[in-house]
């Protein structure tokens, strides 16, 4: 897939972001990572919350690159799968992993409870922490004006 193809299909649009918009999304990431560690919540809910942190990080990447996903069916998928297009082919494995997490989150949010193991939650939390650092490094290198 290419970003231009998604623009042509009406899935993406060009967008000019701001330091404030990026900062607000990082605040969402921090909130979600904190909430995903609340032991009193179900593992399913904690996983969904950690997934949301990852989705917001992918959104930051898209916005910094000058795009916004349109609010249509499949917008999470486009946000995640665009990572290698923007950050480079090294993000293909991460995009595949987060896309699998997206599918698991859909099952646990819409179909059944008890689908997520504690090990899956821990793996996702570790991945999101690593992803957050990579996004910050990428922003510092390619879009330093968005960093405080």
Give the topology.
Blueprint: H1 3-8, E1 12-14, H2 19-35, H3 43-64, E2 67-69, H4 75-81, H5 83-87, H6 92-110, H7 118-142
Antiparallel strand pairs: 1-2
Helix pairs in contact: 2-3, 3-6, 3-7, 4-6
Overview in brief:
With 148 residues, this protein is mainly α.
Structure description:
The chain has a two-stranded antiparallel sheet with strand order 1-2. It is globular and about 40 Å long. Helix 3 crosses helix 6. It is mostly helical. The chain has seven helices and two strands, in the order H-E-H-H-E-H-H-H-H.
Give the neighbour order of strands across the main sheet: 1-2
Strand-residue proportion: under 5%
Overall morphology: globular
Mean pLDDT: 95
Report the radius of gyration as a whole number of Å.
15 Å
User: What's the count of strands?
Assistant: 2
Percent in helix = 55-70%
Short key terms for the protein model shown above:
148 residues, mainly alpha, two-stranded antiparallel ribbon, 7 helices, 2 strands, 68% helix
């Amino acid at each position: 897939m290419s970003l231009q193809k998604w623009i042509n299909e009406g899935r993406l649009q060009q967008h000019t972001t701001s330091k404030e918009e990026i900062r607000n999304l990082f605040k969402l990431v921090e909130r979600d990572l904190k909430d995903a560690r609340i032991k009193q919540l179900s593992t399913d809910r904690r996983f969904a919350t950690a997934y949301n942190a990852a989705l917001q990080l992918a959104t930051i990447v898209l916005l910094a690159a000058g795009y916004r996903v349109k609010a249509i069916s499949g917008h999470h998928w486009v946000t995640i799968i665009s990572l290698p297009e923007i950050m480079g082919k090294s993000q293909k494995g991460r995009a595949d992993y987060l896309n699998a997490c997206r599918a698991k989150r859909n099952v646990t949010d819409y179909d059944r409870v008890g689908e997520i193991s504690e090990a899956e939650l821990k793996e996702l939390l570790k991945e999101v922490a690593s992803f957050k650092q990579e996004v910050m490094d990428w922003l510092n290198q390619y879009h330093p004006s968005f960093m405080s």
